[in-house]
Amino acid sequence: MEAAETIAELARTAPLRIAATTDLDELARVEAETVGKQSPIAAARRGLGALDPNERRDAGRRINEVAAELSELIELKRSDLASGEQAARLEADAVDVTLPGRKPPRGTHHLITRVMDEIVDIFVSLGYTVTTGPEAETEYYNFTALNFPYAHPSRLETDTLYLDYGSVPEEVLLRTHTSPMQARYMEEHDPPVFIVVPGRVFRRDAMDATHTPVFHQVEGLAVAEDITFRDLKGTLAQFAREFFGPETEVKFLPHHFPFTEPSAEMHAFTNGKWLELLGCGMVNPAVFEYAGYDPDAVTGFAFGFGVERMAMVRYGITDIRSLYDPDVRVLEQFR
How big is the CA angle at 274 (ends 276 and 179), to the nearest 5 degrees? Predict the structure, then answer.
């Protein structure tokens, strides 16, 4: 009778204790004290053997009913507490989306790329078309089609990087300028022609403050009827004003290039002094003949300049090697 009273008392008080628990650890203690191995439920089950068979059946059924009810209440409470703790953790870990996020470092194009793109954009605004050509070039397009004589020193291996290109009928080399696209483009297109050719070129130069064996050029070609040297001067003067500023002064000094006649160097007054910027001239009639144009029907001019030099002049860089320094502290100065 004492066991039955204990079970009855447990059935009355245990649900209140279970409902009053505030965390999972406290619930685990209540579970051990009510339905665990040392609980009144366990003790009552151990005492069933001493009861009369008729009483044993009724007592066992009541013990199981109370144990099942309490276990169900405990599981429901455990689920509620677990959900509450998870919600509390989520709230504590919540991110305030109204705060500014962490911004990764902003990248940008390399200064050489930016300057080359700006140069090209200026000529595109003047009506020129952009085209590109192969960096591994044949001797014919790099030299012969541009009227370089066979004895010209630039053809020697001391100046030009030749490639072992297998059994090909002529020499293959790394182009020394972007000018081969003059011949290639004119072979495939009828005049008028207005193109700019940006790209990388290669020469057997030692690395120093003003030279590097790999650098970048922009070549320009204009071909049509009745183009004059005045057109050349006006075009390049406009480019200089667009690139360096509207007050930029330029002058042209006589020079010599195999593929232009007459030829000139264009100098600009910038940073307080006159600086050579580029080479230019009227297209040599021999170049037209190599390309299949009638030199009596068209005229034209060509120009070319180093992108690195243009960047150095504009930004006051005195050593070309700075443009190839991988230290981001150097490159970030020109963001």
Answer: 15
* Residue 67 to residue 320: CA distance in whole angstroms: 87
CA distance 71 to 18: 10
Query: Tokens 């020129």 sit at which residue?
Result: 128
The architecture CATH gives domain 111-334: 2-Layer Sandwich (3.30)
For residue 195, give every residue at least 6 positions away whose Cβ sits within 8 Å of its Cβ, in sequence order, or none. 128, 129, 130, 131, 181, 185, 220, 221
Region of 52 (left: φ > 0; alpha: ψ -120 to 50; beta: rest) is beta
**Which of 263, 265, 278, 281 minimizes the C-alpha distance to 313?**
278
SS3 96: coil
Ramachandran assignment for 119, one of left (phi > 0), alpha (psi -120 to 50 degrees), beta (any other): alpha
Across residues 194-204, what is the average pLDDT?
95
The residues spanned by each domain of the chain are: 2-92, 111-334
pLDDT value of residue 34:
82
Q: Are strands 136-138 and 193-202 parallel, antiparallel or unpaired?
A: unpaired
Model pTM score: 0.68
> Which pair of structure tokens corresponds to residue 140?
């014919």
The set of residues, in sequence order, having a beta carbon less than 8 Å from that of 329 and lying 6+ positions away, is: none
**Chain segment 237-262, per-residue pLDDT in tens:** 999 999 999 999 999 999 999 999 99
Cβ-Cβ contacts under 8 Å for 199 (sequence gap 6 or more)? 132, 133, 135, 175, 178, 216, 217, 219
CB-based burial, 175-196: b 16+ in 10 Å, e otherwise:
bbbbbbbbbbbbeeeebebbbb
User: Three-class SS string for 181-196?
Assistant: HHHHHHHHCCCCEEEE
Q: What does the pLDDT look like over 123-134, one tens digit per residue?
A: 999 999 999 999
**Does residue 95 register a pLDDT over 80?**
no
Question: Rounded CA gap, 160 and 167, in Å?
Answer: 20
**Is residue 1 very low, low, confident or very high in pLDDT (cuts 50, 70, 90)?**
very low
What is the rounded average pLDDT of the residues 77-106? 78
Q: Which two tokens stand for residue 246?
A: 């509207």
